[in-house]
Queue: 4 jobs
Job 1
Amino acid sequence: MKKALIIIIFLFGSLSAKSDVIYFPYQYTLVSYSVEFIYSVEWAKKLKSSNVLWAGTGVAGSFFYLKTPTAGVEVAYERRFYFKPDLYNQFFISGYIGAAYMTDFKNINDVGIVPGFKFNYKVQFKNNLILEPYVGLSLPVTVGYLPFPVATVGLRLGICKLKKGNKLK
């Protein structure tokens, strides 16, 4: 019972949080959405895991404030664990830390550091074109706000350069 009460308190606290690396810089969001366009480089050194550096731009918002989306740029480091060895696509989980600059093009210009975890599905199209829907949990840290966790439903579209280590070629 105590654990459930603590989780509920944190969820209500999340009403003042943001989302993902690109995040919603207003208070009072619980579940957010993001759509991102990224360029990434993925280094595969083991059969089921890789390291990724990525940068991009995107739109983020709250499902409670659909008429108030924000846009921004982001850069992040991500550690991925794939469920199928040597494919480097389909389902994976990841932990990441990134930074983002967000704006609503009116009065909000915000910079945040965002660590988090994601459950992803990577679809590889021709050559390097990828599509990655995900569900994530992040903890945005910005000046002037107490960090609280927030859930994000997102979609990343972009270019991914996969570089396999010598042992994996």
Job 2
Amino acid sequence: MTEKGYKGGLVSRVKNKYSGKRYVISTAQEIGMDYWVTVLFPGILFGLLPALTKKIFTVVRNNKEDAHLVHWKIKEIVINTPESNWLTKWPESEPPEGWSEDAKKKLEEKLGESERLINFMQENPEQGEVIKKDFKDFLNQPHIKDLTKDVFREMTKGPEDEQN
């Protein structure tokens, strides 16, 4: 089920057909900013509400149309793909055309000490791409993928899983 959210946003409450777990997908423009964010949350209270403190994934886009396309793609993945395979199908968190100015500022705020790395990557795009590629290669190593899956499994545990 998808509902129109506030000011052109979208909210979907979905159930993974493999695990039966419920999730909430929310897409909205960041208040006062020039970018849109799609966030996947585990559902609570029969999947009606998002567990706001347990974001699973965040994907940023610079305009409403792209954000809505990402929302629909994530909805399809969450419903029809086992959780263990989500990472192979998930859209990139970074917009294809790069971060908007507001998104860059927010990212710098959140990363804090990594500001020098962000500045370096922005000032040296070729070397920044090498760093991103190296990081992606690192993430694609089999033992890192397994660790990521374990962490993801822990993040997506529902209340019924924690009782066991």
Job 3
Amino acid sequence: MFIKKLKNCNESRDKCNIAQYIRDNKDDFEKILNKLEGLEEKDSETKRRISSLRKILKMIKNNEPFSNHDQNQDLCWDCGDAIHAVISPDDSTLLTRNVRHLEPICESIGKKFKGYSSPKIGS
């Protein structure tokens, strides 16, 4: 079972390398940000994602600290869908129930996705 709740990444002894990953893939994250900013209708999750992507990209540009050991680890959580889309291999298809959020993200970077509905359990 998947439980969607914020993880305390700072509890890890190891420092993550998300800043370098985003730096290495900055063009894709900028494309995603531009696409999301251009959406006519933005729900609260999309607004948080836009805000967090802006902050992360600015921090990366200014060489400010950004990792699970810094005070800004919650920014990653807001960008999870974008990170998953960028990290997926180019020849793969992302499978998601979250078409509303993944469609513009995937379209902006040329990734394939397929939406599905969860089966109803115990009627």
Job 4
Amino acid sequence: MTQATYQKKQQNIIPLLQKGKTNSYRPEDIKRWGVEYFMDTVCAKEDIVIPSLGFTVEENERMEEILKEEEVNNDI
């Protein structure tokens, strides 16, 4: 395999997301790979489960109240 062939193959490899790490992709790379192929390769195949943070019902209600107050006060 020539160096040019090797480099071309390397350009077509999409680095996968790793749990607990931050990946960034350049727009020109995504365009080269194709958006649909990129999304099929990189995105999770199953739903992401968000763990319970252990807040009580009352705490959740208070947080909702605070968010509503901030929306009103900040014109969100």
